[in-house]
Each structure stands twice: as structure tokens, then as C-alpha cells.
Amino acid sequence: MKFSKALAAISCAALCSRAVAMAMDMDMDMDMEDAARSGSGSAAAAATTSDLSQITPVPHEPKHLHGQPILDTQLTPAERLYWESYNTTTFFTTSLGNRRAFWYHCFSLAATTLVAYPASLVLRSVRSNWYLPALCVHVALVVSSLIALSVFASSFPESWYPGSVYPKLSLAVLIATLVHFGAAVITQAARWVAGDDELDAYFGTDFIPLHDFDAGAGEPAPIGSPAIGGAEGAASVASPTTATATLFDAAAKPHDADDPKGKYRDDSNSFELGDGFPRDFEQRTEDSAGMALRHKSRTSTRRDHFLGKVFAQPLVKAAADKFGRVFAVVYSALNYPLLLLLAADCVTGFAVGNLLGKGLRVFNLLAHWIKGGVFVVLGVVSLARYCGFGVARGWAWNKSIVFKNQIESGSWVGRVMPHGTVTMEGIESALIFLYGSTNVFLEHLSNQDGKWAAKDLQHVSIAFMYIGCGLCGLIAEHKLSDWRFNHVLTHTHISPEVIHAGSPGYSPNPFPAFTIFWTGILMSQHAQASATSTTIHVQWGYLLSYGSFFRLITFVLLMLVPNKNLNPSRPFTELVTSFCLLCGGLIFMESTDQVVEALEFRGFTSMFTFNLSVGFTALFMAWEMMLFLWLDWLKERRNKL
Fold it and tell me: Given phi > 0 = left and psi -120 to 50 = alpha, else beta, which region is 603?
């Protein structure tokens, strides 16, 4: 009992002493905090008093810093570990290898894609004799660019991108360029030397064979006159492939007043805007090969003599005589696909040069860049249609008429051509269906575990939307074929018996615009791993939606005010649509994971890339419109000759 009382007393004393010690510690802490507060307050007051004269008064302190690197922000340990190991070294930033060869390759490939080859296409459209020299410049740039790439690759000590597709794609560009150039030379030789009227279907009517001229006269004899061989000349007039057959034959003469200068007439089967006017043969000489060449200046004289020597080569003449039509088909089939191939090579080189898409990330890169590239191409074509591209087929929002005497009896063209012709809306619907069919599993391939996730199902549903909308668009085109034909008959004074097919230049088919609209809306709601990526998706999603909205307004305008002639309609809404498609497709390509990471690492915000995309798109549109302005100037200049 005494022991327990003593133990209790000791415990109480210990507890009391512990409580006293804790109280003393708390008092000391409070005293120290008071002292610190008073000290900091006095220090702050002193600092405020001393620095107040040096402070510039502002209404608002900046709360958002542009260009703040991500490592300077608050990160979780896992995020900091990732970003501290982030490597910014690429082929563009390293000092390894032959840098002169590398940069020459980059600039020469970009120059021929943006300048040299588009300029050659313009010269081809006006049937200029400067076309082949311009094409030689393009070939020289491609060949020298790939030689420089080979020099750089041999001087680079490491393999940073194993299994890259860029060397193979560059080789494909080289082969396609050489084949296209060879086909162009042979086909041009067939026109100049053989004078094959059927080849003029690919080049227009500016060339008239030598045997169609009166050698003693300074002017070409009329086709079908006795100077051309009587019956043969008359037969050439009756033939739908003759060099003088135009879209407006005798049955279409009432419409000559719509286009008095023939600026937009085109009797060719190519995509070019043909003039249908003969060359000026007032000043002609004949070289040793017996070819009539036109000379207007010393430069053109040298050019034509050089071309004459090339075309007079036995190998060229033999190939032109035996395989002229085959080379013409190959040449015509490669013209615009080669431009797309060059653009794809540039984009792929940019991705490989920045080490984008390595490993499984290639699928995310392909999904964004292929889709974004499709919208960019669609924007380029839309702007080209506004400027007059495809006017002969009614693709420039203009009326198009195909007469029965233009179609050979029993030809497959006449059998497959719909009553309402082939419209751009039909082509877009077919491409939408094809794209949706081939893009079902692309995003899913980037999953490391191979399992289907909710994100994969979202992308698959979009692919299903493309398949369904593409099919609906094709069916709608079939249903609207008679409407397009009857629409042309209603607004023309030509007898229906002489018309094989016709179109007002558009089809009120909403499914292509519908597809673009919902692609933009769905992806604008697609949450991403970072706020920057989400905002970028919203930007291009809204742009695509706006573009589809203005495309529908185009249909309404053309239905309210039908096109009364064959000239391009040029609805102003298509300029807005083109901008939205171009800018939206570009930002779409920027929304891939690795591009967003590169922006975030350097502190670039979504508004930064948005501003750059808008500015670049405006400059690109100006460049494309300048090319078509140059084309129109060349055509008017040739019309005055």
C-alpha cells in the first residue's frame, strides 16, 4: 500500500514537471514568433521605406509569364524526373555531321516543293515552252538535295533514328521525279514531232502538227481545208479528238457570249485551265529536223533550238513514235501526285529531323499528321477551286456541260460518267469513306499493353462516322445526279438532245461538310493529358467546325443565285472555308503528343502556337493565290497574241 502511494506520488510529480516544461517551451516559441514577426515587420517596413522610391507603379502585376520553361513551374516528383531527362538535341540542333550538306538538303527540298515545281505546273497549264526548262530546275534541285542528304548521312557518326522511313521515301521521290521528267520529255516530243492529235487531250490545243500548215504561207491553213489534205482535214474536224475541238461546238454557240475571250474554255482531259488558242507562228524557222519553231526573242530562240535538238534525238523520236500515248498517261497521272509526294517528303523529313515518332509514338504521330495533312490538302484544293482550278470540270463552283459529240461512241468514259457529272462533293465522299475504312486501328496500335481503352473506342467511333458519312455522301451523289442535270437544263438555252451530262458546279450534298463539322466538335471535347494539349485540340476543332459552316453557306448562296455562265463563281465564303481548313489542319498536326511536349518544355503556350499558325496560314494562302494570279496573267497575255 505504501509502495503504491509512493509510486503514484512519483508519477504525479513527473507529470507536473513535464507539463511545466511544455509550458515553458510554448512560452519561448511564442516569444520567438513575436520577435520574428516584429523583426520581419520592422524589416519589411524598413525595406518598404527604402525601396518605395525605386518601385514603378502599375495597375496590375503580371500573373502569366510567356515562355516560362516547365522546369520552373511546380511539378510532382514523377513529372520533374521526366522533364529533367528531356533531351532537346535533334538533327536540327546538333553540330555533328556536315552541316552545310544538311541545310542545303533542307532548303533545296523546300524550295522545289513550294516554288520550283508549282511554278512548272503553272507554266504547263498555259502550255508555255518554258515548261521543260522550269521542270529541269525542279529535277536539278531534287537530285542535288538527295546528294546532299547522302553526304550528310555518310558524315553523321551515329544512328539516331533507326528504321527511319525517310531515306526510302526520298528514294521514291527521286524515282518519281525522274520518271515524270522522262515522260514529260517524250510526251512533249510526241506533240512537237509526231503531232498526235490524241496526245493534245493531255496538253491542249496550242500545238498544230507541221503537216497541217501550208509551208509557203506565213499563217496556218484552216483545219479541214484542201491544204491539209482534203478528206483527212475534214475527218479531223469531225473527230472529237481534233486539236480544234472545244467545249463549245456548234451546238453550244449560244453560250459564246458568256465567255467571249475563251479564257475558261478547256477541251483537254487534264485538270489544267486550257485556253484553246493556237500559237503565234508568224515568225517561224525550221531546224535540221524539219520542225517549225516559234521565235520571238534571242532567249526563246535559244530555248527552242535546244528543245529542237533534244526532240530530234533518235532515241527520243523513236520513243515518241512508239510509246507516246503510254508516256502521256504516265506523265498526266504523276503531275499532281508528285506535288503531294514532295509535300509528304518534307513533312516526314521534319518529323525525322526532330526525332518525332520513335517507337510506339509513331502511331500517335501518324494519326495526327495524316488527319491534319488531309485537312491541309483539302484547304489547298478549296482555295484553288476559288481561284479557278478545275473549271473545265465544274470544280470551280461553275456550270459544266459535256456534249455528246465530245464522247466517243461506246467509250468507257461515256458509260461510267453520271448524268450529273462527277462533282467535287462526290470525290470528297469517296475519300472520306476510304479514309475511315483504313483508319480504324491506327490509334489503338500506340497502346503499350495492347488492350482496348476508352480513348481507343472514341477514335474508332470517329472512324465509323467517316465510313457512314462517306457511304451516305456517295448515295446522295447518286440520288442528286438527275437534279444536277435538270438544274443545268433549266438555266441554259441548249437543247437537251446534244448534252450528255451537266452540273451546276456543286451538289447540295451536306455529308462532306457534316463529317468535318462533327470531327471538329468531337475532338474539341476530347480531354488530353495536359491543359495545353486540350486547348490546342479545342482550337483546331472549332476551326474545322467554322469551315464546314461556311461551306454550307456556299451551297445556299449558289442555290439562291445560280451560275449563269461557265466562269468560276468565286463565292466569298470559300475563302473563309479555305482558311479554316488550312489553319485547322496545321494545328491538328501540332496537337500530337511530342509536339505539345516540345512546346511545354520551352514554355510556349497554346496561344503562342495559335498565333503562329494563323500567320503562317495567311502567308501560305497569299502565296497560293499569287500563283493563280500569275497563271491568269499568263493566260491573258497569251490570249492577246
Answer: left
